[in-house]
Design brief:
The complex is a heterodimer of chains A (141) and B (79). Chain A contains three helices and nine strands. Chain A is an alpha+beta fold. Chain B has a single domain, classed as Ubiquitin-like (UB roll). Chain B is built from two helices and five strands, in the order βαβαβββ. Chain B is α+β, with helices and mostly antiparallel strands and 79 residues long. In chain B, strand 3 and strand 4 form a beta hairpin. Classes of the chains: A alpha+beta (141), B alpha+beta (79). At the A-B interface, helix 3 and strand 8 of A face loops of B.
Chain lengths: 141, 79
């Protein structure tokens, strides 16, 4: 199980490919993957850039707890969570959640659980740069 | 006792500082910490709190050396 906060652009697909060559290769039958990507439009405005603020220490701890909660509920062989922090441009990946299990039902359920818990409880705050300046986006958009 | 108090995102900007070091004896809970740093304001309902990097309620106890954080709702996102 691996949780990474990343300050620069990353390729979720390259990370995924490298990670699953590890010790669980051959043991899993299902991989479920979620990739969240930055959009160039939000609340009707063009967004040039966003900055993700986090709480160093607490954010990592919360992400690790979420993965452990998923592990307690489903038979996870492995999980990888990578999340960007700092300045992000449209089209760049923000988050990767990948889980490896024996069968697909557990993979879908655990992947969904991790991304939903992350969205609702992990301390990240989004500030968007739009034409008229900057704004915090704090409600569920 | 001494409490490190940290602020994040829009609250950090509103407070005009990233943290405070609180030295006081009459503090028992997270809510007490907020009253001191906000000079008597009630804790806004939507504000979230953490003690030593774990979510906590306003009624949660604090002790010497704790780190208390206040911050706005986390980013979320539509399903």
């Amino acid at each position: 199980m691996t949780v990474i906060l990343c300050e620069s652009e990353f390729s979720p697909y390259a990370e995924l490919d490298a990670y699953q060559q590890g010790e669980n290769a051959g043991r899993y039958g299902a991989t479920a993957v979620f990739v969240g990507t930055m959009r160039d439009l939000n609340l009707g405005d063009e967004v040039a850039q966003m900055t993700l603020e986090h709480y160093p220490g607490m954010t990592e701890r919360r992400l690790e707890q979420i993965v452990l909660e998923a592990q307690a509920r489903w038979d996870l062989l492995d999980a990888l969570v990578i999340h960007r922090v700092g300045a992000i441009k449209p089209g760049e990946a923000i988050v990767l959640v990948a889980v490896w299990t024996r069968h697909r039902g557990e993979a879908f359920a655990a992947c969904r659980y991790i991304i939903e818990e992350l969205k609702h409880t992990a301390p990240f705050w989004k500030k968007e740069t739009i034409k008229d300046g900057e704004r915090w986006v704090e409600s569920n958009t | 006792m001494t409490i490190r108090v940290r602020y994040f995102a829009s609250l950090r900007e509103k407070m005009g500082r990233i943290e405070d070091t609180l030295v006081a004896e009459d503090i028992a809970t997270v809510g007490d910490v907020w009253r001191v740093v906000s000079t008597g304001q009630p804790l806004p309902e939507q504000l979230l709190c953490a003690v030593n990097m774990e979510y906590a309620e306003a009624s949660a106890p604090v002790k010497d050396g704790d780190e208390v954080a206040f911050f706005p709702p986390v980013t979320g996102g539509a399903e």
